Amino acid sequence: MSNKSTAKRCAWAEGKAPYYLAYHDDEWGKPINDDTEHFELLCLEGAQAGLSWDTVLKKRERYRKVFHQFDIARCARLTDAYLEKLLHDPGIIRNRLKVYSVRSNAIAFQTMQAEHGSFNTFIWNLVDNTPRVNRWRNISDVPATSELSEQLSKQLKKRGFKFVGSTIVYAYLQAAGLIIDHTTDCDWHPDNQ
Questions:
Q1: Which CATH number belongs to the domain containing residue 49 in this structure?
Q2: Which of 98, 100, 126, 144 has the fewest beta carbons under 10 Å from its own?
Q3: CA distance 60 to 63
Q4: Active-site residue (options: 20, 28, 40, 45)
Q5: pLDDT 10s digits, 56-102
Q6: How confident is the model over 161-177, as a mean pLDDT?
Q7: Is residue 106 within 8 Å of residue 39, measured between CB atoms?
Q8: Which domain holds residue 110?
Q9: What is the DSSP string of 48-91?
């Protein structure tokens, strides 16, 4: 983007703080292909449940620190004592189920890696290795769920993942770039690049 100060963004990002704009401009909807990044996004989207994404973004660096940069193997080995200690850390969202879900999700994630070679291979196969580009005109047109998020949510729950309801999964698919939901008036929509 040549001039970010005059750029047109999705309505949900307009007028937000610089860190929020940077998330929209540099991360959201950019296809990721790294298992650790997929794991981090799934965990953070789950942590957001019932809260704003702004709250999670403000706490993301602390999450990265306490969850060892979302190292999947290390998160799978977290002890109850360590997780209990995190429940007193104001730098993260101190919901017991959400905190403990990082460990259970890491264990489930490892199982999927073993089955598919990588989580990345599994997830991108769901969209035939090509992002699904939507052409929503307004933010109010963007759905909270889709057939894909419903199916994926059921698969993940069946495998032991926590905080992976259809709405959370849809937000993850958007963030990870499997579904492109920049609105058509946004300079970051693929049609405007």
A1: 1.10.340.30
A2: 144
A3: 5
A4: 45
A5: 999 999 999 999 999 999 999 999 999 999 999 999 999 999 999 99
A6: 98
A7: yes
A8: 18-192
A9: HTTS-HHHHHHHHHHHHHHTGGG-HHHHHT--HHHHHHHTT-TT
Q: Is 23 a catalytic residue?
A: yes
- 74 in a structural domain: yes
In 3D space, the residue among 90, 96, 182 whose CA is nearest the CA of residue 131 turns out to be: 182
Instruction: Report d(CA 93, CA 44) in Å as an integer.
Output: 10
Is 100 annotated as catalytic? no
84 is catalytic: no
Domain count, the chain: 1
Given the residues 12, 27, 37, 53, the one annotated as active site: 53
Give the pTM: 0.95
2 pLDDT exceeds 60?
A: no
Taking alpha carbons only, the member of 24, 84, 95 closest to residue 57 is: 24
Per-residue model confidence (pLDDT) at position 95: 97
182 neighbors 137 (Cβ within 8 angstroms): no
